[in-house]
Write a structure and sequence with these properties.
With 144 residues, the chain is mainly alpha-helical. The chain has four helices and no strands. Helix 1 runs antiparallel to helix 2 and helix 2 runs antiparallel to helix 4.
């Protein structure tokens, strides 16, 4: 029985021969369950103090706050995964074996560019998560 799909992922066992896609799917699935388990507990923690009344807007805000944090954590996991280093080494080795050239700088430069973009995405998701927390955690406004 195939594993249910996570956000943006096809069910496991779907027809894909792309090794990179399968590697990404494996990494995401490995961490998604543990991160998803944190969402309900994160929603029960309210830095503004004890919950006085449960409302749909408050539940939605708590969910979005914890989802933004989960997204930032997943981004961190993906950017730091050991498979990125393995992919860089494999790409360089494949290039060398095909060309027998000692100069693999073109491959390295292309991958470094992508890694730089991933670092910028990590920074952006962290800022987004912090912005969402700051907005949601600010004390409620009192009427004047």
């Amino acid at each position: 029985m195939p594993t249910p799909a996570g956000p943006g992922l096809p069910p496991s066992g779907s027809c894909s021969t792309n090794l990179n896609h399968k590697t990404l799917e494996m990494i995401v699935r490995e961490h998604l369950d543990s991160l998803a388990e944190q969402i309900p507990s994160a929603m029960t923690h309210d830095p503004r103090g004890p919950r006085q009344e449960v409302t749909l807007p408050r539940d939605i805000g708590d969910y979005l706050r914890s989802s933004a944090q989960t997204w930032a954590e997943m981004t961190e996991i993906l950017v730091k995964c050991k498979q990125l280093d393995q992919a860089a080494n494999t790409l360089a080795l494949d290039s060398y074996q095909k060309t027998r050239a000692a100069d693999i700088n073109i491959v390295t430069i292309a991958m470094e560019g992508d890694l730089h973009k991933l670092m910028k995405i990590r920074e952006a998701t962290n800022r987004f998560s912090q912005d969402v927390r700051a907005i949601w955690d600010e004390p409620p406004r009192t009427g004047n």
